[in-house]
Amino acid sequence: MKYNFDELFVKNNRKPIVIAGLRAGNYLAREIYEHYVQYSPGSVIFLENIDESFSDTEIRVRIQQSISGKHIYIIQSFFNPLHPFSVNDNLMSFFMAVRAMREHGAKSITGITSYLGYSRQDKPTEYQREATTARLVADLMITAGIDRIACLEPHSPQIHGFFASVPLMNLSSVPIWREVFKDIHSSSDTIIVAPDIGAAKTVKNIAKSLNLPMAVASKFRPSKEKVEIMEIVGDFTGKTKAIIIDDIISTGSTIYAVAQMLHETKGILAIDIAATHLLGVDNCCNNFKKLTDSYGLDRIYTTNSIPLSCELSGIGVVNVINLAEMYTLVINRMFNNESVSSMFNIATVS
Q1: What is the spatial distance between Cα 53 and Cα 173, in angstroms, rounded to a whole number?
Q2: 18 and 167 co-located in one domain
């Protein structure tokens, strides 16, 4: 996306902020720093790759300069397929970075989490004895000393309540997809599809903003790895193109099953997919290839909240929206106590 920095970026003479990149999020932290320093030279300090691992896999966070009295913005993606670190490693690095900043005099600490790990575990599976792990992650962040969190599309709105004692800025993906698909506004042959009930509210808002009809798939998981689509509810009269939108794609099994049914039973000839967070694990790449070969998959849109794996980069249909400019302005406007939501009103997609 492109933003009008001349209008939105706030310049001041306050002390410089600190942008700190952990290893899994450093790719985004560096871009944010480069954008920030371009518009406000001398107003930001960049700390790069502040976490490291010992040979026994323990993690250490070390800050190489004084951060006393400074406003800190820690950048982390809890999943990065280009690095060997697990989600748990990345979470532990984040907790330790927050605690290190707190113990060494930071005035405020904000976490910029492009992808919030464990957000899908926001409630136990029905009739199963499971932990509400998303709540545990929130508790640990608060215990570590975080003052504020900003994250893009953290799967479930109820996660906001888990951070009751600290502000959570839930950045919606709706403005992103509204701009990506603006050229098909009011198109008579297109329908927006939610792959499950959980995505329906977001998809409804996107469809409404584009003046397009929507459909919702009803899915059933007989096992962790298998997905069955029971029905797709919506009016497909005259529709030949579908856009499937979800917040997270992991293995792609749900998307594959929905696209297959759209093609075979609803008369859909062309399909686009949009996902805020593309994990792309296990059989995901093969699923996308089969959709391209047999079911009319045209394009996949995602953000760089998670870097593309080398395998996904090679299939040729994935378009990545860079979040660096958005997060640069989010940080700048939070630091200057300005509205963040207003910046989306004049954004455009490049």
Answers
A1: 34
A2: yes
Are the CB atoms for 111 and 74 separated by under 8 Å? yes
Amino acid at 52: E
Does residue 213 contact residue 187 with C-beta atoms inside 8 Å? no
Are 301 and 321 a contacting pair, CB within 8 Å?
yes
Domain that holds residue 107: 5-171+324-345
**Phi, psi dihedrals of residue 147, rounded to the nearest 5°:** -100, -25
Residues 234 and 152 occupy one common structural domain: no
What's CA 200's distance to the chain center, in Å? 17
Q: What angle do CA 70, 71, 75 make, to 5 degrees?
A: 125
- Determine which one of 107, 219, 224, 266 is catalytic: 219
Low-confidence ranges of the chain (pLDDT < 70): 1, 222-225, 345-350
208 is catalytic: no
Residue 247 belongs to domain with CATH number: 3.40.50.2020
Find the farthest-apart pair of alpha carbons in the chain and give their distance in angstroms, rounded: 64
Rounded to two decimals, what is the model's pTM?
Answer: 0.90
